[in-house]
Design goal:
Elements lengths: L3 H6 L1 H10 L5 H36 L7 H36 L19 E6 L12 H8 L2 E2 H8 L5 E2 L2 H20 L3 E3 L4 E3 H7 L10 E2 L4 H10 L3 E3 L4 H5 L6 E3 L5 E10 L18 E11 L4 H18 L4 E5 L11 E9 L4 E10 L3 H6 L2 E3 L7 E2 L1 E9 H11 L7 E2 L13 E2 L3
Length: 440
């Protein structure tokens, strides 16, 4: 969430920054400016009325005759001032609620180093790792490879759950599990992340904290409840959502907390199943495992000092890249332009793995620096070593990696002429020494 004071006092700059993202609701931003001004005026007026009431109360206390007309007049004056204060406070609450609603729907301001542009065509390629695999046979996509080997079953998944689900069988299920454990081992033992196994059901406050709500409510799976459960939820004051990514529970671990500066940076990694309705992607990537409703992911989350965010983004991106390098998968890194970044991000790098059957690169990790955008929503702060006033943390996260898309890349980049798939050397210890996946 943007800082209200900065946004209202630098409205022209905010409009220009958000225009870089393609956000053009000028009327909404003007409304924010006028409401912020009204809020300041109300606060001043109410404070003046409180001072006037205090003075009137002191004056009334000095009147000796409590039945005199003077005493009655001063009592009436106090009541009138009290009514004015209540009206002012009520309006202040209304203005504050509307301001919060506006701020919750405004995306983050792009970092000055984020390139201009409004679509993925404007992203900037930073580097490429490895060579594109070449084949002397007719290559197949991951669906043909996986179904041919008997390790991917989309028909039975549709019978169980509907479209955009997959059942992994045999070596496919083991490969998914191997990737999960391999990624967590690398990030904990080599990169120093602390492993977390979080819930996959989270409160709406956690979704709000990282920016999934209210903007992406339609892409989220909210738990339906019977009447008894609905009443209980109302009593508890929250709804429950299936996590769209482990970013939500891991980042919210420090909501409403104050960390010590000496403990920064804090780094967590965790696995969760992830759930997304993909409401805005109708008809897109319907074949295979590229865009499904349930998928597995290992997430990387970092909390840092505001002065170190740029450096921490490079560190996090390098950690995600190391997984692809150890698996010997060809990929590239692109910096996202302002219009292609996620809602909460101010600077982002995407890792895009090569999928030869599609003859294109596809995102497998998005590594982002959010500044204090999420921390302000969560009230996640740190106390400077000089014991000064607590400051907002900066948060970062990235996939390390999306397991399903990694599996897809292995099936496509490592496919063999006989229909088998070579298991990356780094994964063989996790696969019981298996070097090649063949038809069951």
């Amino acid at each position: 969430m943007l800082d209200l004071r900065y946004a209202s006092e630098n409205l022209a700059d905010v409009k220009a920054a958000l225009a870089r993202r393609g956000f053009d609701d000028v009327a909404l931003l003007d409304r924010l400016g006028s409401l912020a001004e009204e809020r300041r005026e109300i606060i001043t007026q109410v404070e003046a009325l409180r001072q006037e009431r205090n003075a009137a109360s002191e004056a009334m206390a000095k009147v000796a005759d409590k039945k005199s007309e003077e005493f009655q007049a001063k009592r009436d004056e106090l009541r009138a001032l009290g009514d004015e204060i209540k009206a002012g406070e009520a309006r202040q609450a209304e203005v504050a609620e509307e301001l919060e609603g506006i701020l919750l729907n405004l995306p983050n301001l792009p970092h000055p180093e984020t390139p201009n542009g409004l679509s993925e065509d404007d992203n900037v390629e930073m580097r490429v790792w490895g060579q594109k695999p070449s084949f002397d046979f007719e290559m197949r996509d991951h669906v043909e490879v996986g179904v041919g080997l008997g390790i991917l079953d989309f028909e039975r998944a549709a019978k169980l759950s509907g479209s955009r689900f997959v059942v992994l069988m045999g070596a496919g299920a083991r490969l998914e599990r191997a990737l999960l454990q391999f990624m967590l081992d690398v990030h904990t033992t080599e990169h120093g992340y602390r492993e977390v196994w979080p819930p996959v059901l989270v409160k709406d406050s956690a979704m709000l904290g990282t920016g999934q709500l209210p903007k992406f409510a339609k892409d989220s799976f909210r738990m339906a409840k019977e009447e008894e459960w609905e009443a209980q939820a109302e009593a508890q004051g929250h709804d429950l959502y299936l996590v769209p990514t482990a970013e939500v529970p891991l980042t919210n671990l420090h909501a409403d907390e104050i960390l010590a500066e000496a403990d920064l940076p804090v780094a967590y990694t965790g696995y969760t199943a992830c759930f997304r309705s993909e409401a805005g992607s109708y008809g897109k990537d319907t074949r295979g495992m590229i865009r499904v409703h349930q998928f597995d992911k290992v997430e990387l989350v970092r909390f840092c000092h505001p002065d170190h965010g740029d450096r921490e983004l490079d560190i996090l991106t390098g950690h995600a890249e190391s997984i692809l390098q150890k698996l010997e998968l060809h990929y590239r890194v692109v910096q996202l332009c302002a219009g292609d970044m996620g809602f909460a991000a101010q600077k982002s790098y995407d890792l895009e793995v090569w999928l030869p059957a599609q003859d294109t690169y596809r995102e497998i990790s998005s590594c982002s620096w959010f500044g204090d955008f999420q921390a302000r929503r969560m009230k996640a702060r740190f106390r400077p070593e000089q014991k000064g006033k607590p400051r907002l943390l900066h948060t970062l996260n990235g996939s390390g990696l999306a397991i399903g898309r990694t599996l897809v890349a292995i099936l496509e980049q490592n496919q063999q002429a006989d229909g088998s798939v070579s298991v990356p050397k780094a994964l063989r210890p996790y696969m019981g020494g298996l070097e090649r996946i063949t038809a069951a």
